[in-house]
Amino acid sequence: MASVVGEEVSNKQVIFKDYFTGFPKESDMYLTTSTIKLKVPEGSNGVLLKNLYLSCDPVMRILMQRVVPKGFSNYTPGSPINGYGVAKVLDSGHPDFKAGDLVWGSARWEEYSLITATEGLRKITHSDVPLSYYTGLLGMPGMTAYAGFHEVCSPKKGEYVFVSAASGAVGQLVGQFAKLLGCYVVGSAGSKEKVDLLKNKFGFDDAFNYKEEHDLDAALKRYFPEGIDIYFENVGGETLDAVLLNMRDHGRIAVCGMISQYNLDQPEGVKNLMCLIYKRIHMTGFTVRDYYHLYPKFLDTVLPYIKEGKIAYVEDIAEGPESGPAALVGLFSGRNIGKQVVVIARE
Amino acid sequence: MASVVGEEVSNKQVIFKDYFTGFPKESDMYLTTSTIKLKVPEGSNGVLLKNLYLSCDPVMRILMQRVVPKGFSNYTPGSPINGYGVAKVLDSGHPDFKAGDLVWGSARWEEYSLITATEGLRKITHSDVPLSYYTGLLGMPGMTAYAGFHEVCSPKKGEYVFVSAASGAVGQLVGQFAKLLGCYVVGSAGSKEKVDLLKNKFGFDDAFNYKEEHDLDAALKRYFPEGIDIYFENVGGETLDAVLLNMRDHGRIAVCGMISQYNLDQPEGVKNLMCLIYKRIHMTGFTVRDYYHLYPKFLDTVLPYIKEGKIAYVEDIAEGPESGPAALVGLFSGRNIGKQVVVIARE
């Protein structure tokens, strides 16, 4: 459906209702329809975007809290939620962007957006891949997996790597980057279907369903009789506690996320931190924001992998803004298989 | 009292009774007197030592458990406990040692020892300092403070440094190394007397008695309104949780010990690990064993500091093997002021 610049059109939006504690529910958001003129106002250096793909990321849960960590901006009740997305420029008052450009970066959950903070946008220079990949494999999660594994974990060929939430947007890539380097990789996920994906689609050496393991320590001892050199942490809580017991000397833990903790009023306590001492473990929290200077190098590495079929990427596609709240909420029950994307429009 | 080589003499020993859980008690050890011939047996390449100073270190508690972490050897019930010490060689079957040499390193808690595992001993080449310093300032704790601060914390001039158990064998030195580098240093300890030492003897910028702070988070916010760049972790548990809330972005935590946890059947859970992500914190466990290659450099650095009066060191001296069990147990109630040493003989 062509969008005519200058036209006033209806604009479906996903609105954040109000701050809450506990698990997010679909009813914490609601849909509304406003109107928007598809033109950048006179004198503005913003851009008018048609949103194509919106990204569901666990970090968005944190922005739904009244109090957020320093450096984060929580959502405004009554306004559209925001996150990462892929969009097409319909009109531009900014010299770096012109109509027809494809961009990825900060996006609002609505069909069309007037964006004045264009520093959050990057032009898409390679469009010979699925554009939705810029919410995942070629966007924030991909960059997170790349920097987290290669820059934070100091991996070496032959090392034993464990990835939790391994079929997720980030985890599936960490495992594949580790395999490409020659590591032994095991992943955990929350269903048989995801475990099958890890083993059969992403080439993990092994994988298990953590929901079927009553004793995570015993499970890890079974999958890593020699112990774990690198743990890519996506979940936190009792998984981290079990991993600490199974790390090898001089192991590394890259702390990327702790999705099991985001909905708890009081996080679970992690008891086995003394292992950090005995085993001389490096545990490093990181955020992708510190690594975007590596994005060109990342693209140079990953684009050939995609074209040569050396990297697979699985997306879970929800259709239309109406499906957005359920898609986002589903991250926290593990409903999604792979990267959760919401399609707003395909072009 | 001269010890005559070849003579058979009585030998007081501090014997480990049996494995236990919970806080150590004096009754977990007992004194006995055996006899020993002050001569290395024919054909042995061991050394016969007269013990001078024995070191009380928190890690010794861990060796009193039935199950110990990999890489540790627990005590044998009915045998003398062991740890670090300073001794004089009375007789030697080893080419590297001769009668009259002073050594420091692995020692058994007794008056005289026949040591065959001489790889745990280092010759003392500088004896123009108090010999007891080789249990502390110039021994394992000193090396721990030096490596932990300079190698693990990547400190920079002007950074904000917090040290817990700050008047202890390691803490008092970490603070002084940090001051020598030009950092702002605050320490916590468990009594007014210790806090006074920190401020008046060791030159910490500030110090507080953690037992008088009902809200450690609030205390840290008071002492570090700008946050903490470096935390030298000696205690674990709720102190660590409060520190995590007060770390600055890109902060570093060197995990040296967690003395608050050693006597608990189940360690306390640490809840605020998500701060590792938000603040991109490096948390690194280390043991001094990985850093002894730096010992010559350490001596070259620290010996001049001692002679120029730039470093102070406070020891808590207990007299005689009879006082050993109480001295060791006292570490866990904070009875000691400074490095706890047991004198067996002064020469």
TrEMBL record, chains A, B:
Q: Which UniProt keywords apply?
A: Oxidoreductase
The record's annotation in SUPFAM superfamilies points to: GroES-like, NAD(P)-binding Rossmann-fold domains
Q: Report the residue ranges that make up the Enoyl reductase (ER) domain in this protein.
A: 47-342
Q: Which Gene3D superfamilies match?
A: Medium-chain alcohol dehydrogenases, catalytic domain (3.90.180.10), NAD(P)-binding Rossmann-like Domain (3.40.50.720)
What molecular function terms (GO) are annotated for this protein? Answer: 2-alkenal reductase [NAD(P)H] activity
| Family matches, as InterPro entries | ADH-like_C, ADH_N_2, ER, GroES-like_sf, MDR_fam, NAD(P)-bd_dom_sf
Superkingdom of the organism of origin? Eukaryota
This chain belongs to the protein called Enoyl reductase (ER) domain-containing protein
